[in-house]
Amino acid sequence: MSAERQYRSILKAVKVYEDLLSGVSEDIFCMNPPGGGWSYSETFSHIFQSDLASLIAAEKCILKTGVHTRDRTQWLVWLILFFGKFPPGKIKAPEQIRSMVKKISTEDARNLIGKFKSRLDAVKSRIKSSDPNQKVKHPRLGLLNAKQWFRFIEIHTRHHTAQLKRIERMLKST
Fold first, then answer.
1. Which of 39, 48, 110, 127 is the most exposed place for a label (fewest CB within 10 A)?
2. CA 116 to CA 136: how far, in whole Å?
3. CATH class, range 3-172
């Protein structure tokens, strides 16, 4: 899949988040579902903080400040990137990522989305010319190059739209 198609897919997923923000009150946005789990607020914090960190990793690859290696991508990671989705089941975020999650306001969420989209635009045009042997380590997937980081962002952003639907169902059941 081309960087342009991935970019459009990312923006389509981000629209889901933006639409939710425009239709939810601050109280509901910060409310944790019954039985536990992240609120919309915490989910937005996770998604856009992680995606911003992923864009920084892609930029490091583009700027050749990562690790130069010809090591191949692990087969399971290759499958995730190829098929464009995570394996079925709930995946627990790595501790270093979970520790970044916090409750944010709808305004903070809008600002994070704006910052993410701006940086995404800046990175997209430079992905194609990046060196595939320049890599930065992902906390769970290992070394990824800029194109792989961009693909990861797309998969990650789309993946969490299902979480938003779960939160909505759980909140409606109260």
1. 110
2. 19
3. mainly alpha
